[in-house]
Amino acid sequence: MTLRMERMNGMDYKKTYVPKSGYTPICKIGESSLKMLEFGMVELWAGEQCTLNTDGNETAFILLGGRATFAFGDTLWRDVGGRRSVFEGKAHSVYLPRHTEVTISAKEHVKIAVCGTPLDEDTQPQLLGPEQVNASVLGVKPWERDTHFIIDGRCNAKRLTIGEAFVTPGNWAGFPPHKHDVDDMPREGVLEEVYYFLFQPEQGFAIQRMYTKDGEIDETYTVKQDDLVEFPKGYHTTVGAPGYNTYFLWLMAGEHQGFFRANDPDHDWVTAVENLIKKNR
Asked: pLDDT for 115-155, tens place per residue?
């Protein structure tokens, strides 16, 4: 009974976005497990618009599918976007500074991920196209995935790092399990993270594992279309179901911008196997 009650009273790091018109906040500081990262979704149909304020956050808008017009201050960026879904090309994105009111309008159905983190300085807005997305293949089969780096130190963002991962059917991503919750730079930095999942076909699913060595967190989630998982700390890794392409948008924020992570030492021997395979190709 004690173990069951502890599990029932534990934090649930998985959430689900339920599609609806306008802006839907999903992960808010003070209302989630996260202290440095916020996430929401803008979804609009033809002729609709919504207005939101970035408040104290530097904020990135990642176009998942469709086109939208962004209007703020004296700036008007028309018809931003292009791909019909995340599985059809690289992303367009918009980066906005803190304290910016923006109106987003659509001539067609559009879905936009809204990613923010508190920032105590002013920055410059930026429109980023697919040509500014860096693509890389990480890992080797069966833990190989294509990764697109969208927001990082190459753009005007100061704390956000955002990308997209594409996992072919039955493959793993982020293996060996890794974490970024200790300030031991440059080996490891404190960075919170969110994964937001989509699938092709959309009835697909994946398994998301997250845990800490002391057992404080020990979760395995089945994630489906429009599910997301928060990672305030701990190791994490993902595997997609056979027959389905798995996609997840990943966003990170912390005191240091970039990839500063440590692998689980129990499984880090897999890295040596990966390096050997790459060497012999």
From this structure: 999 999 999 999 999 999 999 999 888 999 999 999 999 99
Polymer length of the chain: 281
Listed in sequence order, the residues at least 6 apart from 141 whose beta carbon sits closer than 8 Å to its beta carbon are 171
- The residue type of 219 is E
Q: 224: which strand partners?
A: none
Q: Among 162, 165, 130, 136, which Cα is nearest to 245's?
A: 165
In the chain, what is the greatest distance between 2 CA atoms, to the nearest angstrom? 61
Residue partners of 14: CB distance under 8 A and separation at least 6: 208, 219, 221, 223, 227, 228, 229, 230
Burial class of 14 by CB neighbour count within 10 A (0 to 12, 13 to 18, 19+): middle
- Write the DSSP symbol of residue 120: S
Tokens representing residue 76 in the block: 């008007």
Dihedral (CA of 81, 87, 89, 90) sign: positive
The arithmetic mean of pLDDT across residues 238-248, rounded, is: 98
- Residue 183: which residues within 8 A CB-CB, separation 6 or more? 189, 190, 255
Model-level pTM greater than 0.85? Answer: yes
Backbone angles phi, psi at 49, to 5 degrees: -150, 160
**Cross-sheet strand order for the sheet of 38-44:** 22-27, 38-44, 110-118, 57-65, 93-96, 126-128
pLDDT in tens, 158-198: 999 999 999 999 999 999 999 999 999 999 999 999 999 99
